[in-house]
Design brief:
Mean pLDDT of chain B: 83
Distance between the termini of chain A: 46 Å
Strand content of chain A: under 5%
Helix content of chain A: over 70%
Number of strands of chain A: 0
Number of helices of chain B: 9
Shape of chain B: globular
Order of helices and strands of chain B: HHHHHHHEEHH
Number of domains of chain B: 1
Strand content of chain B: under 5%
Mean pLDDT of chain A: 80
Oligomer: heterodimer
Order of helices and strands of chain A: HHHHHHHHHHHH
Low-confidence stretches of chain A: 233-240, 242-261
Strand order of the largest sheet of chain B: 1-2
Chain lengths: ~260, ~220
C-alpha cells in the first residue's frame, strides 16, 4: 500500500511539475498562446481541461484495459466465444480512433452537465469547452496511459486506474499552473514596450522559453524523491534537503517573471 | 460544381509563403516545437503530416456534399485518425528508431489544428483538385517551417545537420561551442520566438518598400 502511494506521488509530481505538459512536452500550446491573456480566463480554461482530462483518462483506461490492449480480458472472451478458438484478441489498431471518440464524448458530456447545473460557469467557459476536443494535452494523456497499459508486456507493471487518473489529473494541474503563470506575466507585459515584430506570439514564446528553463530546474527532483520515498524514509534531514533542492527553481520562476516584466 | 474562392494554383502558392502554417497562421505548434531538435525527426514528421493532410483533404473533399454540418468536425477527426493510424504503423514498420524517437507526437497529428483547419476552410468547400493543391502547398509550407526551425536548433545544439557533422566544427574544441540548451525544450521556444519575430520584421520591411502610402 505504501509503495503504491509512493508511486502515485511520484507520478503526480512528475506530471504536474517535472515534466510539465506544456513547457516540456509542448502539448496544449494552442490554448497556452491563445487564452493566456487574463488570469481568470486562463484559470477557467485550466479547470475545464483538468476536468475533461480526468474523465477522458478514466474512460480511455477502461477501454484500453478491457477491450483494446493485446489479450484484453473482455475482448478476448468475446472473440473466443465467437470464433471457437483460444487465440487472444488484439485491437490496438483501433486505439487512436477510440480515444478521439472518448475525448469528443467526454467533452460533450461535460458541456451538457455544466450547462445544466452551472449556467454561470458555462457562460464564462464560453467557446473553450468545444475547443478542448482538439487540445493535444488530453490525447497526450490518453497516449501515455496507452503506453503504460497496452505497451507494457509485464502484467505486474501495467498501470491501473489509480495511476492513470493521477497522471491525467496532475497533468491537468500542471497545465493550469503553466497557463496561469503565463497569463500573470502577460498581463504585466501589456504595459511594456515590446519591439513591434515580436508583439503577440513572439514575445509570448520567448517568455515561455524562460519559464521552461525555470521548470527544467526541477529535473532530477523525482530521482531524489524516489530514493527518499521508495525504501521507507531515512532521516528528517535528508527530506529537508530534498525540499530545499526543490525550492530554488520556484524562486527562479518568480525572478524570471520579474526580470522580463 | 461551381466553385468560388481561390483557384488551385493560388491555394498552392498561398500555403508556401503568404499563409505559411507555421509563421503566419501559427497552426500546429505542437510538432513544430517538439520534434525539431534534429533535422531527421523534423523531416519524418513533415512527411507524415503531408501524407495525412493530402489524404484527409482528398477524402473530405469527396464527401463534402454529404456532410452534416453539426457532425463535420467529428467526421474530419475520424478521417484524420484513420490516416494517422496508417502513418503510425508504416513508420513503426520501416523506420522503427525514428518512430520511437517521435513517440507520442505521431498520434498527436490527429489533433493538429493545421489539418482540421484545412479540411474546414478548403476541402469541405471546394473540389478535389483545389483541395489536393491546397494540401500539397500547406504541407510544403509546414515542411519549410519545420526545416528552418530544425536547421537552426540542430546546428546550434549539435553542430550538425541531418546528423552530418559540419566541417567548421570538426576537430578538437568543437564540444565547447555547442549550445546544448537549443536542443532542450527552452531552446525550442526561444528559436520559434526569434524566427517569428524575424519573419514579421522582414514582411513589415517589404510592405514599407512596396506601398509606403499604405503604411502611413
Amino acid at each position: 500500500m505504501e509503495k503504491y502511494l509512493a508511486e502515485l506521488i511520484l507520478i503526480a509530481i512528475g506530471a504536474a511539475i517535472i515534466n510539465n505538459f506544456v513547457l516540456i512536452y509542448f502539448v496544449g500550446i494552442c490554448p497556452f498562446l491563445g487564452v493566456s491573456r487574463r488570469v481568470d480566463m486562463a484559470f477557467g480554461m485550466g479547470c475545464a481541461v483538468t476536468f475533461v482530462i480526468s474523465i477522458a483518462a478514466i474512460l480511455s483506461w477502461a477501454f484500453t484495459y478491457y477491450i483494446l490492449q493485446p489479450g484484453a480480458p473482455l475482448a478476448t472472451d468475446i472473440y473466443q466465444a465467437l470464433s471457437g478458438t483460444d487465440q487472444k484478441s488484439d485491437l490496438s489498431i483501433l486505439n487512436y480512433i477510440i480515444y478521439i471518440f472518448v475525448i469528443a464524448a467526454s467533452v460533450q458530456l461535460v458541456e451538457m452537465y455544466v450547462r445544466k447545473f452551472f449556467p454561470v460557469l458555462y457562460k464564462s467557459f464560453g467557446v473553450f469547452l468545444p475547443l478542448i476536443t482538439t487540445n493535444c494535452a488530453i490525447l497526450f494523456a490518453c497516449l501515455e496511459i496507452m503506453k503504460h497499459v497496452s505497451g507494457e508486456p509485464n502484467q505486474a507493471l501495467k498501470w491501473g486506474l489509480g495511476e492513470s487518473l493521477t497522471l491525467a489529473f496532475f497533468g491537468g494541474v500542471g497545465f493550469t499552473i503553466a497557463i496561469v503563470v503565463m497569463a500573470g506575466i502577460r498581463e504585466e507585459l501589456d504595459l511594456c514596450d515590446v519591439p513591434k515584430p515580436l508583439r503577440g506570439a513572439g514575445i509570448t514564446l520567448l517568455v515561455a522559453g524562460i519559464l521552461a528553463m525555470a521548470f527544467m530546474g526541477f529535473t532530477g527532483v523525482n530521482k531524489n524523491l524516489k530514493k527518499k520515498i521508495t525504501p521507507p524514509a531515512k532521516t528528517q534531514a535528508e527530506a529537508g534537503q530534498s525540499a530545499g533542492k526543490a525550492e530554488p527553481p520556484q524562486n527562479e520562476i518568480a525572478a524570471g517573471g520579474r526580470e522580463k516584466v | 460544381m461551381p466553385t468560388d474562392g481561390p483557384t488551385p494554383l493560388e491555394r498552392f502558392i498561398n500555403g508556401i509563403l503568404p499563409e505559411n502554417p507555421v509563421y503566419r497562421q501559427l497552426l500546429g505548434m505542437c510538432p513544430v516545437l517538439a520534434v525539431t531538435s534534429s533535422m531527421k525527426n523534423a523531416m519524418t514528421m513533415a512527411g507524415a503530416v503531408a501524407f495525412v493532410l493530402i489524404c484527409a483533404n482528398i477524402i473530405v473533399s469527396l464527401i463534402r456534399n454529404r456532410l452534416q454540418p453539426h457532425l463535420r468536425i467529428l467526421v474530419f477527426t475520424l478521417t484524420i485518425a484513420t490516416f494517422v493510424t496508417i502513418a503510425d504503423r508504416v513508420l513503426a514498420a520501416f523506420m522503427y528508431s525514428t518512430s520511437k524517437e517521435l513517440g507520442p507526437y505521431i498520434p498527436l497529428i490527429i489533433v493538429n489544428c493545421l489539418i482540421i483547419c484545412r479540411c474546414e476552410v478548403c476541402a469541405s468547400k471546394q473540389g478535389v483538385t483545389t483541395a489536393t493543391f491546397d494540401a500539397v502547398g500547406q504541407s510544403l509550407g509546414f515542411a519549410i517551417g519545420l526545416a528552418t526551425m530544425a536547421s537552426m536548433r540542430e546546428l546550434l545544439a549539435n553542430g550538425s545537420w541531418f546528423g552530418i557533422e559540419m566541417f567548421w566544427l570538426e576537430g578538437t574544441a568543437s564540444e565547447k561551442y555547442r549550445w546544448a540548451l537549443m536542443g532542450l525544450p527552452p531552446g525550442a521556444f526561444f528559436s520559434l520566438g526569434i524566427l517569428l519575430g524575424a519573419v514579421n520584421w522582414i514582411t513589415s520591411l517589404k510592405k514599407k518598400k512596396c506601398s509606403p502610402q499604405l503604411e502611413g
